[in-house]
Amino acid sequence: MKSTEYIDFRQYLLAIKRRWLPSTTVFLVVIALAMLNVFLHKPVYEAKGKILIKKPSNVTSAITQGQEIGELSSVSSQSDPLITEIELIRSTPVARRAIATLSLKVKPQKFLEDLKIQRIGKTDILEISYQSPDPKIAALAVNEVVSFYLANNIVDNRAEAATARRFIVKQLPKTEVIVRQAEEVLRKFEEQNNIVDLEGEASSAVEVISNLENQVSTAQVQLADANAQSQALQNGLLGMDSQQAIAASSVSQSLGVKKALEELQQVESQLASGLTIYQAAHPKIIDLQNKKASIEALLQGRVEQVLGVPTEGISENLQVGELKQQLTTNLVQLETKRLGLNSQIAALSNVLKSYKQRANFLPGLKQRKGELEREVKAAQSTYETLLRRLEEIRVEENRVVGNARLIEVAEVPEAPLEANQERNVALGVLLGILLAVGTGLILDALDTSIKTVKEAREIFGGALLGLIPFSGKKDLEEDIQIIEARDMPRSPVTEAYRTFQANLNFLSSDKELKVVVVTSSIPQEGKSTLCANLAVTMAQSERRVLLVDADMRQPSQHIIWNLLNQCGLSNVLVNRAELKTAIKKVMPNLSILPAGATPPNPMPLLESKRMNSLIENFLDDYDFVIIDTPALNIGADAAIVGKMADGILLVVRPGVVNSASATSAKEFLKHSGQNVLGLVVNGITDNNSNYSSYPVKEYYSEEDTTVSKTLALESRKNLSRY
Do 19 and 446 meet the contact criterion of CB atoms below 8 Å apart? Predict the structure, then answer.
């Protein structure tokens, strides 16, 4: 489950406490400046005037968009036209004019800073005020600004009207030409396309096309009927085609043909009667046959004369009965009707096609005509609008008075403004607090040192074995070194060491700790003092303790215990001194092995077999051995000795070690394979004790101080006993 993130305000409070000196300095400087400002403040007078911003009459309009001259309308829908007027009043030309008129020795920018303009509520009234140490100047400045603005407003409006008039006069001839051109284009379009009434033509075209389609359909039906009858007569009854029937009918109507045909019929009758009486070779029969041939030739000639073309066999078709002649007449009539119907259908189809083509063009013509008409109307509307606006602007040019009116003149103020000194002081205090807090937080952020127990645990990890408060006490007397656990048994620092000892005892349940190495990331973290107090605490618990000063680079245990350092660990390691001689007993159950003479390079001595055997020998005579080693950034001494001990205790002092050194120490211990027993945070103060369970503030009573002094003096006097 994801942990909930929150802001730990205690961290900010601790940061401010750590940087209280610069923060307090900044706060006091700001307060001092605020008080100085109040002290040097001069009385200021303020004069006020009011003007009304109004809209002009609706007679005045702009050139093309219908916008009134001087009207307070904004270009953007989100802007306020009154704000625009305020900025015009606060413009640099207005300030320069007022400065020049009043002979003021100020710059336009400073003048505009003292000039205030604000809208009164939701009205169209603007209040103009000016502040000055001179009350007369304050009133004159307001009145001069208002006067110049009103005069300039009138001039601007008149100039706008004149500009609009000149523009319209210039545009009228061009607009008139555009109107005439649009009308001429529309007229030519109507003439070219024979347009009179497109709407009526479109509606009538639909009706005409419908009627024509009906007529074509009717004619086609009649033609089909005539074709059927003609075909029946030709194939069934007459045995001739339509051309032959027409020819026969034409010939039968001729009188000469009829007379010759009658004569031919009589001769044929006589010949038939004679053949019943006479033989074919009889002269009379021959005479009748010759007469028949002559009449047939005469008939053929008259038929050719009637038809106008040579014909053969037409005489046989002429000799028909009355019924056949009637049918032939009917066939001729049907052929005539069929030809007429074909002509009628062709004519109707052509007319129908032309009407349909016209109907297809009508929408395009209508659209184009509409476009041309709109262009004409737009041009006419623009022309008429320009004429109307020209008359309006001519009237407006002679009578425009501006859209602003003075409603209150600024008077000379009698009393100065009441300076809100309390508010200024309060603002100074607030600003001082903010700057002080900001200074503290910034300085703390720039500081890369470990500041709190929490940061130390986040960097090093592992078990937190102890939190040792900062005592703040160095000496009871100038030449006496204080060891808290020994000299102040009732102090909270001593209690912290006792808690540290208890945690150390409970650290390992499988194997009892015998030898521990104490080190730190860098010097000045208090590891040597911690070793001394831990040794005292262990000794007070009836355990035999040996404190070994293995810091041969900067030894300090002999200083803490006020011992001589002529003989110590280094002397024993090089076999120049006996161990028993080097070890000094400083109090019951506690002995000290000083560092001894400082060698050129301590590392070979510490990693020698002699050192390892010494540690093993220590365990024969002592219950607990504490080895004080140099800081990890100085050398690898602690790592060398740590391999011979049960583990390493790491001392961390917030405010002294930085995160880079701490991280480097952690990585060194990790890569060298050390058994780090835990972390001891030393020098806890109110500025970094948010994780401490001990009160940092010391509460020594007079009796405690007296007892501590006595114990410390007696301790020094009795050093020789041990």
Answer: no
How far, in Å, CA of 632 to CA of 639, rounded?
8
Which DSSP letter does residue 164 get?
H
Rounded to whole angstroms, the Cα distance separating 633 from 238 reads 143
pLDDT category, 618, cuts 50, 70, 90? very high
- Helices 9-18 & 421-446, crossing angle to 10 degrees? 90
Say if CB 128 and CB 116 are below 8 A apart. Answer: yes
Tell me what percent of the chain is helix, strand and coil, each rounded to the nearest 5.
60, 10, 30
Q: Is the CB of residue 638 less than 8 Å from the CB of residue 521?
A: no
Dist CA 208 CA 376 (whole Å): 33
Identify the residue whose tokens are 């300076």.
419
Counting every residue, how long is the chain?
722
Report the relative pairing of strands 584-587 and 590-593 from DSSP bridges: antiparallel
Residue 271 in tokens: 């010949």
The pairing of strands 45-53 and 404-408 is antiparallel
C-alpha dist (Å) from residue 226 to 197, 229, 241: 42, 5, 14
Q: How far apart are the first and last CA of the chain?
A: 60
Q: Is the pTM above the cut of 0.70?
A: no
With 0-12 / 13-18 / 19 or more C-beta atoms within 10 angstroms meaning exposed / middle / buried, residue 103 is exposed
Q: Please report the pLDDT score of residue 15 as a whole number.
A: 67
Q: Where do runs of H (alpha helix) occur along 561-701?
A: 569-573, 579-582, 602-606, 609-621, 637-642, 659-671
Q: Which two tokens stand for residue 248?
A: 């026969």
Give the CA dihedral 435, 439, 445, 446, nearest 10 degrees: 140
Per DSSP bridges, beta strands 115-119 and 125-132 are antiparallel
DSSP class per residue in 526-576: -HHHHHHHHHHHHHHTT--EEEEE---SS--HHHHTT---SSSHHHHHTTS
Q: E strand or H helix at 129, and its extent? A: strand 125-132
226-265 in b/e burial notation, b at 16+ Cβ within 10 A? bbebbeebbeeebebebebbbbbbebbebeebeebbebbe
Domains and CATH numbers, the chain: 202-369 (no CATH), 448-721 (3.40.50.300)
| Amino acid (one-letter) located at 218 | T
Q: What angle do CA 161, 163, 167 make, to 5 degrees?
A: 115
In the three-class reduction of DSSP (H, G, I as helix; E, B as strand; rest coil), residue 627 is classed as strand
pLDDT tens-digit series, residues 109-167? 888 888 888 888 888 888 889 888 888 888 898 888 888 888 887 777 777 777 877 88
Nearest in space to 324 (alpha carbons), one of 241, 245, 231: 245
State which amino acid sits at residue 125.
I
